[in-house]
């Protein structure tokens, strides 16, 4: 791996994204969908929809996303190490943790919105279907960014090239 201003910029961006994901997921942990039980309830301060399985998916996904983003930010601190092997490995680890954090943040968001719109089945289904389409695309594109010389990245770049050249041919007709 060649260390340059581009790598430094990529590290800076990933560090900011990790920090942003940690901030968002931390905040989501305190602004729970459905709210909290009031002080007059038998269990004050607990989530109103604590036993809803979709809410439990939200909590687990949110926690995993927060921990992955924090670990990703910490691993990028090691990327400034003077040993190039340690720096490269920590950069790769930070990228993988960012991929996991963004994936679990997407799942947590989907679960929170699903809980909020659960009375409308068509809207709940739409939210879940859109997430099922978006999440793999997001993972593939980010994985191609993390591993730019992988067969996956080559395939995505080829598909992008075909789409762009096909668009040029269509606009030229």
Structure description:
The protein has 173 residues and is mainly alpha-helical. The chain has one domain. It is built from 5 helices and no strands. Helix 1 runs parallel beside helix 3 and helix 4 (121-146) packs across helix 5.
Provide the residue-averaged pLDDT. Answer: 80
Low-confidence sequence ranges: none
N-to-C span: 43 Å
Strand content: under 5%
Share of residues in helices: over 70%
Q: SS-based structural class? A: mainly alpha
Topology order in helix (H) and strand (E) letters:
HHHHH
Strand tally: 0
Which value, in Å, is the CA radius of gyration? 20 Å
Q: Count structural domains.
A: 1
Task: Quickly count the helices.
Answer: 5
Shape: flat
Most strands sheet: none
Keywords: ANK repeat, Membrane, Repeat, Transmembrane, Transmembrane helix
Protein name: PGG domain-containing protein
Subcellular location: Membrane
Pfam families: PGG
Quick structural overview:
Helix content is 77%, strand content 0%.
List keywords for this structure.
mainly alpha, 77% helix, flat, membrane, transmembrane
């Amino acid at each position: 791996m060649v260390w340059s201003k581009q790598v430094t910029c990529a590290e800076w961006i990933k560090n900011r994204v990790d920090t942003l994901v940690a901030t968002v997921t931390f905040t989501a942990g305190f602004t729970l969908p459905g709210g909290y039980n009031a002080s007059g309830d038998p269990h004050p301060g607990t989530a109103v929809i604590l036993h809803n399985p979709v809410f439990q998916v939200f909590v687990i996904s949110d926690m995993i996303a927060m921990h992955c983003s924090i670990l990703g930010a910490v691993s990028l601190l090691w990327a400034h190490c003077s040993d190039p092997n340690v720096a490269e490995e920590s950069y790769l680890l930070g990228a993988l943790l960012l991929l996991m954090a963004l994936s679990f943040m997407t799942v947590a968001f989907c679960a929170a919105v699903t809980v909020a719109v659960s009375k409308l089945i068509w809207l709940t289904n739409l939210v879940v279907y859109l997430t099922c389409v978006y999440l793999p695309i997001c993972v593939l594109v980010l994985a191609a960014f993390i591993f730019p010389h992988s067969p996956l990245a080559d395939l995505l770049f080829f598909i992008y090239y075909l789409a762009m050249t096909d668009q040029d041919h269509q606009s030229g007709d």
